[in-house]
């Protein structure tokens, strides 16, 4: 790319790549600055669900945004297949969250009721199903399963192919992707920004912070408070098995290759990404109760990775009030929201009125909560 960029995107994980892909496709001149391969990257450690049920309990706008993304997902998958030749393996047969006792089932039912009762939430069509119906959908569920929540819009993808497809698209749309360019400073320069890395400075008319857990440090440079924290999740993968599941479950999904992914825990241990064997054992034990057929399968891989969690768990999207043209985009469901980020949010960055469009997702809500 020659000449100054219209937009500099900081971060090349699933969020930055989806946004940059959408911007490039819309005709903007874009530079992506990304840290090195040893950086913390949620995008390389996730479970791969495109998940609608349960999303937005406490923020109806997030429920609607998630549902919108799930609806837009086939379009994104088709574009990546046609334009970049990468099949991300999208399947949206609906998904289940199985319950192992009545207490879990009651909590699931309550959540669905709470979600439905929110004004303007729209329909996500999640409902409680009994054990019989759950077994019609998934005949190999174990005898302890007493029921499930089912949502017809849930699905899953191969998240690594998604990242690869989006990155292939960056090249295709002439987005200038620069690895090993850790951003140190962002400085106002004329009507835009100088974004300073150890390897030089890049000018952009606009700058988008999509640096995951790195946004907390970068935000104050452009008047944005981004209060996110790491949330560690563990995932296990079995050897390849014959067909066991035709729907993704909240903590179990069978990949196209036949492996079964078991996940994902949640704990708050700072930036520690070591493997905790007690957590791994707990995940495996529950998985065997839900799907006894995997009881003898060998675990071939396991890892932990860090989610990017805001105080209420919902996304943060905003243009800075004090540094116009500087934005933050972050969330903890970058797979689910990839379609909305690429197809809806990216074009909105090129128009006026970003904060009006995404008012519910402003970090100002945390100040309002703290003051209350
Ligand atoms: C265990 C686990 C399971 C998950 N399961 C799901 C799921 O099923 N479905 C779902 O939707 N989501 C899931 N997620 C969440 C999903 O992975 C994240 O939402 C997504 O990866 C976030 O992408 P990101 O681009 O914001 O962050 P990251 O992938 O962390 O990328 C941030 C990028 O910014 C770069 N960066 C940081 N600071 C700087 C800087 N100063 N200069 C330049 N570059 C910088 C980093 O190098 C990195 O490449 C899961 C996450 C985990 C950990």
List the uncertain runs: none
Which kinds of small molecule does this entry bind, naming each only once? flavin-adenine dinucleotide
Q: What is the name of the CATH topology of the largest domain?
A: FAD/NAD(P)-binding domain
Roughly what fraction of the amino acids lie in strands? 15-25%
Record keyword descriptors for this entry.
8-stranded mixed beta sheet; binds flavin-adenine dinucleotide; D-Amino Acid Oxidase, Chain A, domain 2; 17 strands; 10 helices; single chain; FAD/NAD(P)-binding domain; alpha+beta; 372 residues
Task: Write a short abstract of this structure.
The protein is α+β, with helices and mostly antiparallel strands and about 375 residues long.
Description of the molecule:
By secondary structure, the chain is of the alpha+beta class. The chain has three domains: 5-49 and 160-228 and 312-371, FAD/NAD(P)-binding domain, CATH 3.50.50; 95-150, no CATH class; 229-309, D-Amino Acid Oxidase, Chain A, domain 2 (2-Layer Sandwich). Helices cover 31% and strands 24% of the residues. It contains ten helices and 17 strands. The strands form four sheets. Strands 1, 2, 8, 9, 10, 11, 16 and 17 form an eight-stranded mixed sheet that branches. Helix 2 (60-84) crosses helix 8. Bound molecules: flavin-adenine dinucleotide. The site of flavin-adenine dinucleotide has 43 residues, from helix 1, strand 12 and strand 15.
